[in-house]
Amino acid sequence: MRLAPALVLPLLFACVPARVVRVDPRSTVDLSGHWNDADANQVADTLVADCLANGWVDRFTGAHPGATPVVRLYPVRNRSDDHLNARFFTKQVEASLLRTGRIRIVADPEEAADPRAERRDQGLFASVPTVKPEHRETGSDYVLNGWVVGQDDRTEDLDVRAWLVTLELSDVTTNDKVWIGTRQIKKLVPHG
């Protein structure tokens, strides 16, 4: 049985993989108008710069000469209707904070479970000189929490998508909030 050429060509092209183009990870590629990696990068960098310019680090080091403030960053929560990977955004904030060299970050409770399990395992199976002791974790001086909320509006021809990201830094001892930062992203998405 012979297939007509008009049927064969579409079948051949259906088997050819799509061409992939690599781009700079810091470039903005906005395909859908939804929250994306460029938004996460931009917001993380902006909020971290604001956080560290606020003066709380200098106040801490003035009160504790020679010490570097320790922060525990809890995963940022997504409270918007849009799908966004909150862990991806949290890691962008964490990496941006660490790159400054002005603070130390300890693992969040979920991430701390693996090193704790490793220490318990070493206590049972590792040689005595190499066992890492329990109860030596660094306590945090501050906790950084955050969330993303969304607000959409729509007309017949246009969607307006907006997200407000809020991060709050609290003193672990006193529960005083030492910094609150917000950053908004807004996009106009025409219906096509």
Written account of the structure:
By secondary structure, the protein is α/β, with parallel strands linked by helices. The chain has one domain (33-190): ABC-type transport auxiliary lipoprotein component (Rossmann fold, 3-Layer(aba) Sandwich). The chain has 5 helices and 6 strands, in the order H-H-H-E-E-H-E-H-E-E-E. It has helices at residues 5-15, 37-53, 56-63, 86-100, 109-125, and strands at 70-73, 77-78, 104-106, 142-154, 158-171, 177-190. Strands 1, 2, 3, 4, 5 and 6 form a 6-stranded mixed sheet that branches. The two termini are 42 Å apart.
Strand content: 25-35%
The CATH C-level name is Alpha Beta
The CATH architecture assignment turns out to be 3-Layer(aba) Sandwich
- Number of continuous helical runs: 5
Q: What do the pLDDT scores average to?
A: 90
Supply the key terms:
single chain; six-stranded mixed beta sheet; alpha/beta; 192 residues; Rossmann fold; globular
Entry summary:
By secondary structure, the chain is an alpha/beta fold.
Give the arrangement of secondary structure elements:
Layout (H helix, E strand, L loop, with lengths): L4 H11 L21 H17 L2 H8 L6 E4 L3 E2 L7 H15 L3 E3 L2 H17 L16 E13 L3 E14 L5 E14 L2
Parallel strand pairs: 1-3, 1-4, 2-4
Antiparallel strand pairs: 4-5, 5-6
Helix pairs in contact: 2-4
